[in-house]
Design goal:
Blueprint (H helix, E strand, L loop, with lengths): L8 E2 L3 E4 L6 H10 L1 H4 L9 H13 L4 E7 L5 E11 L5 E8 L8 H14 L6 E6 L4 H9 L3 E12 L2 E11 L6
Parallel strand pairs: 5-6
Antiparallel strand pairs: 1-2, 2-3, 3-4, 4-5, 6-8, 7-8
Length: 181
């Protein structure tokens, strides 16, 4: 397992843990290998300096929580799932973003990892609702949301600025009462 952190939760094949600065070399190498898989949807950091800033925000900003999905057999990083815009109080919600790395894509590892993150968010983090905003043509991301029990709630035109343009997104969500514990 890269880094020094222990798993926050484990499934049969993966564990989730927080990012560490020591993960930079592996993360960025995996991101470079996965460029064709990610683009035009996602642009994770591919250089060490960019990773340092990215991981730093996830580690230091209380409105964010970042998780690496790691294969238990060898501990390699299979993907990442971040909860952004965490709001407490009456809302208790966060917005999920995620990506699989090419070597792990299509193997069900991200489904297992996302399930662990959702349960962690509704348990330890005390959230009530999680949202995923995904571009309508990103079939793999929509399939992952659907597999993990998220429901389609709406459409948001020109929602996020990605790759030089404002992109439409579908809004998927799950609430704590929808997840069996």
């Amino acid at each position: 397992m890269s880094g020094t952190a222990e798993y926050l939760a484990e499934g049969p094949r993966v564990g989730i843990r927080h990012y560490t600065h020591e993960d930079g070399a592996e993360f960025t190498a995996r991101a470079r290998e996965s460029k064709e898989l990610h683009q035009p949807w996602l642009f994770p950091p591919t250089g060490i300096a960019a990773y340092g800033s990215y991981a730093g925000r996830l580690l230091e900003d209380p409105t964010k929580a970042g998780f690496l999905v790691c294969e238990k057999d060898g501990g390699g990083i299979a993907g990442f799932i971040n909860i952004n815009n965490i709001v407490e109080g009456a809302f208790l919600c966060g917005a999920l973003g995620y990506g699989a790395f090419a070597h792990a894509a299509g193997r069900g590892l991200m489904s297992e990892g996302l399930d662990l993150v959702v349960r962690h968010a509704f348990g330890r983090l005390g959230l009530h609702r999680l949202e995923i905003n995904v571009q309508p043509d990103n079939a793999a991301s929509i399939a992952l949301a659907r597999r993990c029990g998220f429901r389609l709630e709406g459409f948001s035109p020109e929602f996020l600025y990605i790759d030089g343009a404002w992109r439409d997104h579908e809004r998927w969500a799950v609430t704590a009462d929808m997840i069996r514990t």
